[in-house]
Amino acid sequence: MAYDLQLTNVYKTYDNGTPAVIDFNLDVEKGEFIAFLGPSGCGKSTTLRMISGFETITSGDLMIRGKRVNDQLPEKRPTSMIFQNYALFPHMNVRQNVLFGLEVKNMPRDQANRKVDEILEKLGLSAIANMPTARLSGGQRQRIALARSLVVEPDILLLDEPLGALDANLRKSIQNELKLLQRDLGITFVFVTHAQSEALALSDRIVVMNAGRIEQISPPRELYTRPCSQFVARFIGSNTILPGTVVGQEDGNVILQTAFGHLTGANRAGVDVHAGREMSIILPAEAVDLVPADVPEDEMRANFGSNAISCTIEKLQIVGHIMHMIVRFADGNQINVEGHVDKYRDRLKAGSRAFVAWNPSNATVIDN
Ligand SMILES: Nc1ncnc2c1ncn2[C@@H]1O[C@H](COP(=O)(O)OP(=O)(O)OP(=O)(O)O)[C@@H](O)[C@H]1O
């Protein structure tokens, strides 16, 4: 399989000794939308800059379309980069900003003008083509930066927090535009963000990084429902983490002895789950079923096995079609649960007792 982009055993240690990226491995197919997600300082921008050529690689291989490009200059690589501050030229108008990249490449004037017209049209910028960029709004500046990167027809577009400077509403609408544009063009996008909602909304796969290392590479939904490390379980979505000790396996599910008795979850990671191993059940908020305390025990058992933890409903709040609930376990810990109003409205009351229950296949057992 020929990949658009491959990083194999890539390391980056800065001259001052900071190990910023450690053994990074990723294969990206043409047309994929990849997000690098993680807390500040985890190595996202360093990795992006190594792909663009603005940062050197300490060791490992960087391949673009099957060719090793470790030592190729940025302007020779088939990549384009958009920075958070857009780096537009304030003394040039919109058209001149977009034209600049083609002038650097010495493209004949007629051909360059045609390409600029096309991309300005595509991004809805034709009407403001002759305006100086300094006077434009954040959204317009963002679009100009996009036009300037795309006009050179890169194989891979690299975006470093490109929506970070925009307010929440504009961010949402530009997110949608960006996704549509990426589908339309079929170009590979690699996008750096520390906003999980953005990564979940936009990407085909998310690379979660922590302290220079990759924690998990998964499509958004899988990351949300099947985190495979403690870091990811805490960083993404809303998970309840129930630590315990393995006592055995049953029907592909792992049984843990926990503070709430025997509880079960799926062994998705395929790890060796010998008795005595310290592990945790990761229970995503959307996998939780809140069951009134008066449901007969045999019905509970048939639906959830031993997966029922007694709790008190502290608070109910309806927002649109969703009921948000806060429940408290006997050990004092609180968790958030949410579900469709129709399911819960007539069954649960604030202050009453209930069970937090789940089907074991919707929870995952991972190492502590
Ligand atoms: N030029 C540099 N020289 C030395 N250390 C650096 C340099 N640039 C980044 N670092 C360090 O490398 C590590 C990774 O930084 P990087 O900017 O890649 O993280 P990041 O995930 O993009 O963070 P942020 O979201 O804050 O931009 C950090 O410890 C950072 O302090």
Automatic annotation (TrEMBL):
InterPro entries membership: AAA+_ATPase, ABC_SmlMolc_Importer, ABC_transporter-like_ATP-bd, ABC_transporter-like_CS, Mo/tungstate-bd_C_term_dom, P-loop_NTPase, Transp-assoc_OB_typ2
GO molecular function list: ABC-type transporter activity; ATP binding; ATP hydrolysis activity
UniProt keyword annotations, A-Z: ATP-binding, Nucleotide-binding, Transport
Domain of life: Bacteria
Domain ABC transporter: 5-236
GO cellular component annotations of the record: ATP-binding cassette (ABC) transporter complex
A matching Pfam family: TOBE_2
Protein family according to the UniProt entry: Belongs to the ABC transporter superfamily.
Name by which UniProt lists this protein: Putative spermidine/putrescine transport system ATP-binding protein/spermidine/putrescine transport system ATP-binding protein
Species of origin: Roseovarius litoreus
